[in-house]
User: Fold these one by one.
Assistant:
Number 1:
Amino acid sequence: MPDDMRWVKTHCARMDHGGCALLVAVRDNKIVQVKGDPEGFLNRGYMCVKGVASPDRLSHPDRLRHPLKRVGKRGAGKWQRISWEEALEEIAGNLVGIKEKHGARGVAFVVGMPKGLDHLVLIRLANIFGSPNVVGIQDLCHAPREVTGYHTCGFYPVVDFHYESKFVILWGSNLTSTNEEGEICSMILGQIKKGLDYIVVDPRRIGLAKKSKLWLQVRPGTDAALALGMLNVVIGEELYDKAFVEKWTHGFDELATHVKKYTPEKVAEITWVPADDIRKAARLYATSKPAAIQWGNPIEHNVNNFDTIRALICLMAITGNLDIPGGNVDARDPRIMGLAQFVRADLIPDKRKEMISAHYRVIPRFMTIPPAFLRKAILDGVPYPVRAVYAMCCNPMLSYADSRLTYEALMKLDFLAVSEIFMTPTAALADIVLPAATQYEFNDILHYGIGHGDILACPGVVDPPEECWPDLKILNELGKRISPPEHWHEDYNRFVEDLVKPSGLTYSQFCEKGYLKGTERFRKYEEKGFATPTKKVELLLSTAEQFKLRPLPEFRGLPEEEDSQYPLVLTSAKSRYYLHSSYRWIEKLRKLNPRPTVEIHPETAKKYAISEGDEVVIETKYGTIRQFAKLTDGVHPGVACAAHGWWFPEGNPENQYDWDKSNFNMLTSVGKLGREYGTPNVKALACRISRAG
Ligand SMILES: Nc1nc2c(c(=O)[nH]1)N[C@H]1C(S)=C(S)[C@@H](COP(=O)(O)OP(=O)(O)OC[C@H]3O[C@@H](n4cnc5c(=O)[nH]c(N)nc54)[C@H](O)[C@@H]3O)O[C@H]1N2
Ligand SMILES: Nc1nc2c(c(=O)[nH]1)N[C@H]1C(S)=C(S)[C@@H](COP(=O)(O)OP(=O)(O)OC[C@H]3O[C@@H](n4cnc5c(=O)[nH]c(N)nc54)[C@H](O)[C@@H]3O)O[C@H]1N2
Ligand code: SF4
Ligand SMILES: [Mo]
């Protein structure tokens, strides 16, 4: 090793939920090599190809390197380089101007998938500024699981791979591609090597389906029915944990009577899963303890998410798998600053009533705005106008259902500022674009608030380009300009210091340890009961009437009605090479996945005269896009699985890099929303496919 090269420890971030501990070789302020740290808490040396490519974000020639101001028409792609001082003044002037005219609530703060501590600092900024409108994508991502958990059993029941399970269901969770919620797949792969039995519930034959005991090739969007069918079997065959049910559940008799109608035969018709496989799956899960359900995104990607998740938690509960090692647990945070304190929730006590989604009466404890309501507020002034947006770490033009509506809304704003590392279709519509520093370039903390009871150290290892600022610094400086400066710090590194302070560590001591995990205690309910009004797991919701919720989980029909004009069921899965809409511009990754593909069964392809690699048109009632056919018998002949998140960095800047050509969300709509979370259908849509040309 050359003398001037040093190895530093940090964690991978912003390529998914993050979590792999890394060893990074640095020379002359440049990363020359990264490898998985064999001592890593979650990965034990594992890392994926995105991690390997991650340093390429820093050095890409087209990375944003200076603040930019729009000149000419919005979206025309004409920019002028300005100084940070000018950029911050411009943003502050506009946000404060809107506040004076429309109130603080006229400004929305927009984030995407939580990527690091900046997510929480943005919420803090909104709270201090006085706006109740923090818009996230939580309607599609984890809040349905988390908040349904609070209402049903008082906590968010996350899978526990730190202890051995006897049996696992991968329910719509493609862990080897997504490492969902930082559950790095090497953890379950290690258990599988030692003989763990598992089954897969997925319309596609994912990698892990090959060695699974059973693969339930479910019809997209019918997971609630499948879970109810399994409840029918577990209860009907008396396979449940009688002692637990007796002592710790509320409404078991009602649930038992209710699920009688979901016979495996009836459920088979809805879900396309053979009745005997439903029985087998239910028996395996109920008779192997501890058993865990690793649930994925698709359970929340349609209007029925509340019922699906309720049914799954009922399954965990009646089989006695809640809060036991190797089951689904209530993971407690280590001793660090609490979320509410960190984001200064105390400064905005009326937030719930004031949010632009309040009129829709989303479920209590769901505290970010579903994107459907942001666009309503901008375009129709309902329930009141939002006139300015500060957006960070997100790409709504691609990630929100109904992209055309997003385009119209962003075009109509008085002011849009975007912090980014690269020019995206969303940033292309901004008035001011801020060049952010990113992972490896500043001190960060990962997994805070994600619900798995750990936080990870993500110290910077190199300096950012001269004019690229970490979002923590941007928000800290903006905060001083648009809100009382006493809430902000001299040095933005105070955020990471303050957060870990209750643990007795400084940030650099924390970095030496690498991670902190809350004390592991199980069956905590034995002390004070479950944190619900009945102190039990509420199979039957005691708050149903009060909050206008359905007391028992139901299957209320397909998310979208069948339509003979659109005979295929359209779903999607994340690419293992990209994070949502991010990083199509990293050459290494683009080589591995050069263009958007839609998976269809060879029989289906033949029917429509489509061959491997053909460009095809995908149509729904709401829109039309083009992708390329990939023929595989790994999908059901009635299903098409298209790629999500595609735009073309090499595309036309005046058309926002061809944001509309292959973008899955041109095919989705917000016409129908789930009652509890305002979630649209982004999976299980009716579509048709034909060869382009
Ligand atoms: N149809 C459909 N829609 C979906 C989904 C789906 O499966 N299907 N999935 C949904 C889910 S689960 C989620 S979480 C959302 C994701 O929605 P988003 O979070 O909006 O999507 P990303 O593509 O991750 O956008 C992240 C942006 O942040 C930028 N970025 C990366 N690092 C930094 C940084 O350090 N600072 C700053 N300022 N910017 C940075 C990237 O360049 C990228 O443009 O999409 C949702 N939308
Ligand atoms: N590589 C990569 N990793 C990521 C991300 C990424 O974009 N790329 N995004 C991150 C984020 S924010 C999230 S939320 C997670 C999501 O991680 P996952 O939950 O794994 O998300 P998906 O890939 O959307 O879906 C998982 C599987 O569900 C299947 N599926 C599709 N429709 C249905 C259905 O109706 N029912 C069932 N049971 N299964 C269905 C798909 O075929 C796919 O194999 O991943 C995180 N990690
Ligand atoms: S699995 Fe996730 S955290 Fe690990 S290297 Fe890949 S992108 Fe990074
Ligand atoms: Mo997500």
Note: The domain at 157-329+522-547 is CATH 3.40.228.10 (Dimethylsulfoxide Reductase; domain 2).
Number 2:
Amino acid sequence: MIPFLDLKSVNKPHQLAIQAAAEHVLTSGWYILGQEVAAFEHQFADYCQTKHCIGVANGLDALTLVLKAWNFPVDSEVIIASNAYIASVLSITHAGLTPILVEPDPYTCLLDPANIESAITERTKAILPVHLYGRCCDMASILALAERYNLKVLEDAAQAHGATYGKKRAGNLGEAAGWSFYPSKNLGALGDAGAITTNDDALATQLRAWRNYGSSQKYVTDYQGHNSRLDELQAAILSAKLPLLDQENNRRRMLAQTYLSGIRHPAIKLPPADQPEQDVWHLFVIRHPRRDDLRAYLQERGIGTDVHYPIPPHYQKAYASYAQLSFPISEQLHREVLSLPLNPALTDAEVAYIIDTINEFSKEWSE
Ligand SMILES: *Cc1c(COP(=O)(O)O)cnc(C)c1O
């Protein structure tokens, strides 16, 4: 049996370092906003080549806090791809703003710059490119539009730890970026954790206070802030794992390359292979018109898969007012996408077995 993702195996190479980090935090007697958080913030800012990193409780908070800090008028609009992860859409709503969904590029599954301009109104204030599956959005086009229309750009980098765009790292491409270190991400904690990266000094100062009740000094409250703190234990674990991130991303790239060259099936669409060094392959997502049949077939042969994601945001009950909208590209993606196992713990033999099994999938089901 090859599970879609076995976090126990993924964390196994880090076990000693994680245990040492936990021991260190335990005996330090300091558990919230101390040296471990400060150290991880420095390391992660360095890694992303940004001036600031602010640790927060999770990825949703990271995005929400930035959007709130920008203090746009109520009813302001934020443009996002209609196949984005639901947390990315929720962050816009939680900040009191309106998500404006636009069709993604059907090939990359990312925000399509060609669909942004027609969605811009006088209420539009920001664009939220989600670097879905570990590949950066077409930031040159997005940033050019943002400049032309005076919009902020908030990267959702929760699936793109270590991804690059040109010479820059994800997290250093817009005004700010939200990160998640949810356990299954390329850099994952052993619980919830998140961060914001930015080069904006004032924003960083405000967010540092906001994550901690709005206090820049103990018992002095400058803003009606939040409690969204990254804790010492998770920060120490993330610092222990960060040095191996590039190596793990390289392993993901190798496995992705093996899938890309090995899968030969007339009805399967493979993910884009044009940026092998830039993408970090958080997920390896293929497409098939009979996705559910393929998924069941693989399951019967001991191969676990997942679907990212089965229901588009505009069909979620939480966004009932969007239900009458139509996004054919996005809807088709949600029907067809299938994520194959891809993580640093996966073996070459497992990938070879998965490829052979996929290639044997009934050819008459090629639509
Ligand atoms: C995981 C994820 C989030 C949310 O992160 P949490 O830490 O679970 O709140 C947001 N956006 C994307 C693209 C994600 O993958």
Note: The mean pLDDT is 97.
